[in-house]
Known about the structure:
The complex is a heterodimer.
Chain A lengths: L3 H18 L13 E7 L6 E7 L3 H10 L18 H7 L3 H10 E5 L2 E2 L1 E4 L5 H4 L1 E6 L6 E6 L10 E5 L5 E5 L4 E5 L7 H38 L1
Chain B lengths: L2 H10 L5 H16 L5 H10 L4 H28 L2 H4 L2 H32 L11 H13 L11 H12 L4 H13 L2 H36 L4 H36 L1
Amino acid sequence: MHHPRRAIAALLAALAVTVFAAPVRAAAHPFGDPQTVAISLDAARSEVVHIRWKVGGLDDLTLLGVSLGLLPRDRVMLDGAVFFQASDAAAIGPSPRFAEYLLRQVTVASDGETCAGTVQPPADLAKSGVTLDFACPAAVGKVTIAVRTLTDLNSAYQTLATGPNGERAVYAAGKDTHDWVLGSASGDETKRSAAVQLGLVVGVSLLVVVLLVLLVRRKQRTKRVTR
Amino acid sequence: MTAADQLQEILRSPGVPPLAFALAFAAGAGHAVTPGHGKSLAAAYLVGARARLRDAAWLGGSVAVMHTVSVLVIGLAWTFLSLSDVLPMGQLTTWLQLVAGVLVIGTGIWLIRRRLHGHRHGHGHGHGHGHPHDHSHPHDHAHEHEHEHPQPSGKRPGLILLGVSGGLTPSPAAFLVLVTGLFLGRAGFALLLVMTFGLGMAVVLFGVGALAVAGSSIVVRGARSRSLLRLATRVAPVVAAAGITVLGVGITVLATINLTTVT
Lengths: 227, 263
């Protein structure tokens, strides 16, 4: 059972993989946050809804800039890689075309009537996003908010939305509207339910692990006794 | 559509579809197959430490556990503590990579030191420095008594450190699944999917480890008769330990470069 050639080959292969493969590791997790919207009711005027939109990965912002014609096409590499530059946000932020895009993709309706939107000039688009103000005809209670940002570029994008009182929703292609209750306060239901669910899963899996360990121990003990 | 995308869809469908777990497992396995993720590190360590199949299982297991924990912690912080306002995710993961790199360097140096130490004082447990015959007998001996002494050669701390460093940086797909689950109010289901994802990763890493163990045992067996292989057997652990250190330095340097360019 001697296979010197195979053994040497295995050794060399292991070493080659060891030396050359791992530095790629750092590039294997280039993940950014998903895009988010934070929805809130204006503190003073109960007919105004604020929506703060924030891009997830900064390269998504560059991609949007290219699709809006605000950035040159060569910012997207042939292999699809996109590189964000600090100047990108500055080029996109003040553009009317960007504001138009946002108002087209994000809409608010209260009592079946569309609310008029305006885009606040973003101070730091890359870091803190951009705020849209929607003025509805009357004081709002329940509003229907649609978010379709970036899904027109790629349907895999989704938006994670937070509202007042810890209310949460996920927007995705095909599921781009959600009803929000912005009026009176209710409890932070999501947080509590998440805690209960996560606690349950963690508890049960710990229990399973403990049982497995006990089982294995017992098996080993009986093996030792019989030996 | 990738398995990870499909998971997002399934997360929205009512009930707990069993298909989801198969998908999560496949997505995790697929993720571990992509370059990096400590497969080469695992192989190097297992060859270097003359590990057994059980050690490969420990390695895979610690990656799965650490990956789940890191996804859970970051996902919760992102969702409920507005982590994204404090620190961009890209930066956080790069910091985690830096920590992972430092852990790997530490493991590599520890492994080298163990060898050199064993050499200088002529300890029997410094694998590979004595005559190959001397080496293989204590090893087999330890194998027989493994039930009484679960840590016969002190390999496990290093293995678990490597596993931890491999699972420290969460995969984007798993992170998104958990965060989406939290937002949809299906936190428990999402966590189960992330655990299954980690299991898929663990199985692939275990497979790689098992191959490495098989490969190195062929080398050891061959070494009894061939002088060239005997040399290889003696040199391999040291080279593997040095390789791990070099890789750790590589990961750390890359993370540092990313940190300085991202910020």
